[in-house]
Each structure stands twice: as C-alpha cells, then as structure tokens.
Amino acid sequence: MAVARGTSLNHISRESSDIRRLANFYKEIFGFEEIESPDFGEFKVIWLNLPHAFAFHLIERNPNYKLPEGPYSATSPISDPSHIPRGHHICFSVSNFDSFVQSLKEKGIETFQRSLPNGKVRQVFFFDPDGNGLEVASKEDPKQ
C-alpha cells in the first residue's frame, strides 16, 4: 500500500531568468491563465493555472546558483526535439492536435512527431523558450 493517500498533482515549477517570457509562451501556446501570486520579496514569481488541470509556478532564477538553467545551457546544447521522448518533459493532451501542430509550425517552433506503437495517439515534441522539453499528445478517439 502506498504511503500517500488521496494524491493529486498540485503544481509544476520551472525556474527561469525571464519568467515573463516563459509565462507569455505558456499562456499563448496552452491557454494558461495568470493567477495571483505571492510576493516573496527577494525573487519574483508568476503563477499560472490551467483550468481543471494544474498550476504552473514560474520562479525567477537565482544567478548565484550553479545549476544549469535548461537543456540549452548544458555542456552540449540540446536543440533536436527528436531526443525529447527519452528525456525530461511535460506532456499535455489536446483535442485539436492537427491545428495545434500547424500553429507551432507557423510560429517557427521546431517539432518532432511520432505515434504510439498502437497508432491511436499521435505525439509532437518541442522545446519551450528556456529549452525545457514538451510533448503534446492527441486525445485518443473513444470510438476506436
């Protein structure tokens, strides 16, 4: 039996040197809504909410930390989205997969597409402005 009971996803956080840029990306691409966030004084945060899903906390990066900011700041920059399926990423599902992918292409966002082995779910992989891996999956058709 699991130690935790009644578990649900509360929020995901990402640090960034430009939380406004990252917030605008997630609002434009996925429809996150900006919600009230606390004033921590020493660093800035932007809290986003995806209705009926989860919250996303964007935290101003501490420039004194030696942690890599994201894949783009790694020793060997990662810029090929075909590597995302086996790496760290967040996945969203959408009901308008084809038009979503077309919108990414129109925005000049490099993508990698594939399907699950059963062919029922299509996937597109790409990076956010900080180089974090993202996946968007088509919602499985319940009639299949």
Offer a few descriptive terms.
single chain; 144 residues; alpha/beta; 2,3-Dihydroxybiphenyl 1,2-Dioxygenase, domain 1; 2 domains; 4-stranded mixed β-sheet; 2 helices; globular; Glyas_Fos-R_dOase_dom; lyase; VOC_core
Euclidean distance between termini CA atoms:
34 Å
| CATH topology (level 3) name of the largest domain | 2,3-Dihydroxybiphenyl 1,2-Dioxygenase, domain 1
Total domain count? 2
Mean pLDDT rating: 85
Q: Which overall shape is indicated by the principal axes computed on the Cα atoms? A: globular
Elements, N to C (H/E): EHEEEEHEEE
Sheet with the most strands, sense and barrel status: 4 strands, mixed
By CATH reckoning, the class of the largest domain would read: Alpha Beta
Q: Classify the beta-strand content into a percent band.
A: 25-35%
Helix percent band = 10-25%
CATH homolog superfamily of the largest domain:
2,3-Dihydroxybiphenyl 1,2-Dioxygenase, domain 1
Counting helices, strands and paired strands, the structural category is alpha/beta
Quickly count the helices: 2
Give the strand line-up of the largest sheet. Answer: 1-4-3-2
Radius of gyration: 17 Å
Q: What is the level-2 CATH architecture name of the largest domain?
A: Roll
Low-confidence stretches: none
Q: Count the beta strands.
A: 8
